[in-house]
Design brief:
Blueprint lengths: L7 H7 L7 E3 L13 E4 L2 E4 L22 E6 L5 H8 L5 E8 L2 H6 L1 H6 L6 E4 L3 H7 L5 E4 L6 H10 L3 E4 L7 H14 L3 E3 L7 H11 L6 E9 L13 H8 L7 H10 L8 E8 L4 H10 L10 E7 L4 E7 L11 E4 L2 E4 L5 E4 L1 H7 L20 H10 L3 H4 L1 E2 L2 E2 H8 L5 H15 L7 H8 L1 H10 L5 E2 L21
Parallel strand pairs: 1-2, 4-5, 4-7, 5-6, 7-8, 8-9, 10-13
Antiparallel strand pairs: 2-3, 10-14, 11-12, 11-19, 12-13, 14-15, 15-16, 17-18
Helix pairs in contact: 5-6, 6-7, 7-17, 9-11, 15-16
Length: 488
């Protein structure tokens, strides 16, 4: 039976888009702009959570039918898209059947990656709505979206309404209403919608995640993450100035997923815990205001140069998030895990701290652990200890064999942010081909991406607490822990 088609505008209506609407108990003084209805209860902002249609199904642990070949079409071939096309030429069981960009020459240039790999050239789509024909094509199973942020949901929802699986670059959506649109489209059409959060596949993050889920750090009680990246060399290279325009017009942590994604995986968010509420604040805009004045002629930049956010989970853990793309700070995703038995830190110096008894319980002579009695717990464990632990707790994904080579080593030969981009793409194709649940699902895409609007709302309302919507609609504790699936 053919999947019913809904326009993007219709779906957003179903997702209850409105501006500054009140559904309960607010005075005029409390009105503010939001993409969905809201209410304020005891000083806490609650956003409306729409109920699903009876035909929708929960997508936690969702499995689609296995496919021998994943037929993929790429939409958005400017800055990030071409690298994805090239990486897919190294993955078995892939047919690249569509290349789409607003500008046809960008799509045509990507044909060379296929030619170099000895693959057939793909059909080219172009123009403002060229993606629609690609999504409607019968020879596409997966639509891989790397457009400017403002188009992510429009393309993704259209693709899902054609029965296609979608993979969306970060952030996958920009507002809470758009996040609900992704959830509803995936649940209604029963297709995968994953976020292309490559930092979840960084070698340090993967190894540390395995340590955390193996109990090495005891109970994780706090995590930290960020996107701190001086984008000064890149601003003028975004097509049609889309990224600076977005930053100029929106306050809040608009690019939270690199930091929050790995943290949510370590805390089993949607799989035993959930994000409860957040508070956020920003500095004034100084460098941002200068930049937007120089490039855009605008007198105001709404986004502060530094954004700080604190999140508390239902189970009583906390997450500290930061966003800064305007000042000359060294690149950092922070990535810290604080546990009752140990600690992990990636930036600015990668290292671990362990309790002596914890190390003794996990290390064996077989692995040649150095003298742990010499550890000083006022500093990181010696590099030799950390290296040994990283070898001992390498994640199963890192050890997954590709042509007889561990995926971590194989990815380093391909590249893409140190190999993590390739691992992300490989796992996506692997799970689709084997009919397995994806490592990251639509609820991850929605919740991590919702940080942009949620933090803006908190900032613009004097750092009031904002409840994080439950995109799983009550199913967040139905799955016991995050699982990376493998074929038997």
């Amino acid at each position: 039976m053919k999947t019913p088609k809904f326009s993007f505008r219709e779906l957003l209506c179903v997702a209850v888009i409105s501006v500054a609407a009140i559904f309960s108990g607010c005075s005029d003084a409390e009105l503010f702009q939001a993409s969905v209805d809201y209410k304020i209860v005891d000083g806490v902002i609650h956003l409306y959570e729409p109920q699903p249609h009876p035909s929708q199904q929960c997508m936690l642990e969702f499995r689609a039918e296995p496919m021998d070949t994943v037929r993929v079409g790429f939409v958005g071939l400017g800055m990030r898209g071409p690298g994805a096309v090239e990486r897919f030429t190294y993955i078995d069981g892939v047919a690249i059947n569509g290349l789409c960009d607003k500008y046809a020459d960008r799509a045509e240039r990507c044909q060379q990656y296929l030619i170099n790999a000895g693959m057939p050239e793909a059909k080219v789509y172009s123009g403002d709505v060229g993606y629609k024909a690609l999504c409607e094509s019968e020879d596409i199973d997966l639509v891989y979206i790397a457009t400017p942020w403002q188009l992510h949901v429009e393309v993704a929802v259209y693709a899902m309404n054609q029965g296609k699986h979608v993979a969306i670059e970060v952030p996958s959506a920009n507002t809470v209403a758009e996040c609900w649109a992704l959830v509803d489209a995936a649940e209604r059409n029963k297709v995968h919608c994953t976020i292309l959060e490559n930092c979840c596949y960084d070698h340090f993050e993967l190894t540390t995640l395995n340590m955390a889920h193996s109990g090495v750090f005891g109970e994780i009680i706090h995590a930290e993450g960020s996107y701190i990246h001086n984008l000064e060399p890149y601003w003028r290279h975004y097509a049609d100035n889309w990224r600076l325009e977005y930053n100029q017009a929106h306050n809040g942590d608009v690019y939270a997923t690199h930091g929050i994604g790995p943290n949510c995986q370590a805390l089993n968010i949607h799989r035993g815990d959930r994000l409860d509420y957040l508070v956020s604040m920003s500095t004034k805009s100084i460098n941002g205001a200068k930049l937007t004045k120089e490039i855009m002629g605008e007198d105001e930049c709404k986004q502060g140069d530094q954004i700080n956010t604190l999140i508390r989970t239902h189970n009583g853990c906390t997450i500290d998030m930061q966003h800064n793309v305007m000042t000359p700070r060294p690149y950092s995703r922070m990535y810290q895990l604080v546990g009752t038995e140990g600690y992990a830190n990636k930036y600015p110096v990668a290292g671990y701290t362990f309790k002596l008894d914890q190390l003794q319980s996990v290390a064996t002579d077989e692995h040649g652990m150095p003298d742990i009695e010499a550890l000083d717990h006022h500093s990181f464990a010696p590099q030799s200890v950390s290296a040994e632990m990283m070898m001992l707790y390498k994640h199963p994904v890192q050890k997954q064999l590709v042509d007889g080579v561990p995926l971590q080593d194989y990815s380093l030969s391909i590249g893409g942010h140190g190999g993590m981009d390739f691992i992300m793409d490989y796992r996506l194709v692997y799970c689709l081909r084997n009919g397995l649940p994806l490592d990251m699902d639509v609820y991850d895409a929605a919740e991590w991406s919702a940080m942009g609007e949620l933090t803006r709302i908190s900032i613009e309302n004097g750092s009031k607490p904002v409840k994080v919507p439950d995109f799983t609609r009550g199913n967040w504790d139905k799955v016991d822990g995050l699982t990376f699936y493998f074929a038997e």
